[in-house]
Amino acid sequence: MIAQLTTNERQYALVLLIALAVSGLLLAIVGRDDSLGAHGTLVFLAALGGIFGVISKYYSPEPSKTRLEYYYDDPTKVGIILAMVWAVFGLFVGDWVAWQLVYPELTFDAAWSSFGRIRPVHTTSVIFGFGGNALIATSLYVLQRTSRARLPDQLSPWFVLFGYNLFCLLAVTGYMMGITQSKEYAEPEWYADIWLVIVWVVYFAIYLRTLARRKEPHIYVANWYYMAFILVVAILHIVNNLAVPVSLGHAKSYSSFSGVQDAMTQWWYGHNAVAFFLTAGFLGMMYYYLPKRANRPIFSYRLSIISFWGITFFYMWAGSHHLHYTALPHWVQTLGMTFSVMLLVPSWASAANALLTLNGAWDKVRDDATLRFMMVAAVFYGLSTFEGSFMAIRTVNALSHYTDWTVGHVHAGALGWVAMISFGAIYASVPWLWKREGMYSAKLVEVHFWLAVVGTIVYVFAMWNSGIIQGLMWRTYNESGTLAYSFIESVVAMRPYYIARAIGGLLFLIGAVVGFYNIWMTIRTAPRAIREAVSDKPDSVLVGTPALQPGE
């Protein structure tokens, strides 16, 4: 990695790492009596490791200029491996959380392992650790192929990967220490937020700089979705995390919003994080990898553009449907509900576009588990978006909100859509990147697919049943007009469903472990001579290589 940087890039890397090490050391000193000090030490050690890495290869020969004839895929390779590491870790913690609801003693009397602390560890690890790394890795791969342009430099992609994973590490360790902004979506504190903004701006700059030097005049639709994901997530993150630190030596901060304004801001952020992080970014992934794997043009390019603008506009207004029957003005609640129902049109347009692309390729879906991951993802995307629009209706929301039905809906999207399309894209990319004819074991891909599908179905159906029973028990009255069931009775009634949920999560976790093993063995068993020869050479040469063409 370091050896492939130019001398100037190695110098810039050293300057950046030294600045980061100094910043970490200062945080460790001023926050020595606070949890901020622990994070300062972590930043200092991470930067120190990077400094030693650069110095160890500082005098390596200047990389050959022929590298500019080839795509730069090493960041994508590392991003894929990091995504799978976070997937296994995050799913393990998630299943641990699920079993805690069955056996509360699984906290082992340790504060850091309580439900309230490791639940955000799970969500951050799978959404931002797994999903974020998968998006960064695949976006850099897709960007180059569809633009027929190499990344503008070799340092900034590594800065994004290193910086982003450092942010994830700060967030996860912070939650275990009890550091959070106490929002609905648990957020790391102010210093981690600032760091992520810097990393994200560099990520967006990579995209713009590459597109500016593209050899393909057309900007393929996948890049529209990836850029929307990058830009809007930056806006959401900055606004939602506006805060005033107690002091520069303290991790605690106070939000710039309060009361109903804070609630509205949180759900504007929360639902648009779903829209642009968990939807738009992964639609970009789908619009490249599914037609590429099926060897078919996208069914309708025009439909994909219409869907893009529909999703981009409608989603922005939908967040208030999370706040039905609250102090939020009634007209704002109605606005959110209306746009949520309207969202069904562009969402189903994308799902239908993906499935219709497979016309004439269903034999490949039958025989290719990788393509089947993508097909199932498109199906779950359609189902989840229908369910989301349905649950946003005020009368339905009266039954579903605050129940496990919402948990089932979220995981139908997270497991069935986000994870499935990510696994499909990763399984497609690994042989291309490491010059293999296929994965180490096609049978293990098949095993992973069925474990993931069965695990998702068990999980989601358990939570659907649990949630509807909860909602009905909470609103059942006896003849005297009082509640027929106490809250604790509804909790007891959930136990069998929580066991089923934990079993479903365990199956999904085992599938991810199988997938990680298969990917690792695919990399390890690639002939060494080939691995060394293609360390900076991807699957196709830039000059004369056509970009993926849209279908009409």
Task: Give a written overview of the molecule.
The chain has 19 helices and two strands. With about 550 residues, the chain is mainly α. It has a two-stranded antiparallel ribbon with strand order 1-2. A hairpin with a 7-residue loop joins strand 1 and strand 2. The longest helix has about 35 residues. The chain starts with 6 loop residues before the first helix and ends in a 19-residue tail after the last helix.
Mean pLDDT: 90
Gyration radius (Cα, Å) is: 24 Å
Structural class based on helices, strands and sheet pairing: mainly alpha
Overall morphology = globular
Q: What is the helix tally?
A: 19
H/E series: HHHHHHHEEHHHHHHHHHHHH
pLDDT < 50 runs, ≥5 residues: 533-541
Distance between the termini: 41 Å
Q: Could you give the order of strands across the largest sheet? A: 1-2
* Main β sheet profile: 2 strands, antiparallel
**Share of helical residues:** over 70%
Tell me the strand percentage band. Answer: under 5%
Number of strands: 2
Write the layout of secondary structure elements.
Blueprint: H1 7-30, H2 35-56, H3 74-100, H4 115-147, H5 156-177, H6 190-212, H7 221-240, E1 243-245, E2 253-255, H8 259-294, H9 301-315, H10 330-342, H11 344-357, H12 362-367, H13 369-391, H14 394-400, H15 404-433, H16 442-474, H17 487-493, H18 495-524, H19 528-533
Antiparallel strand pairs: 1-2
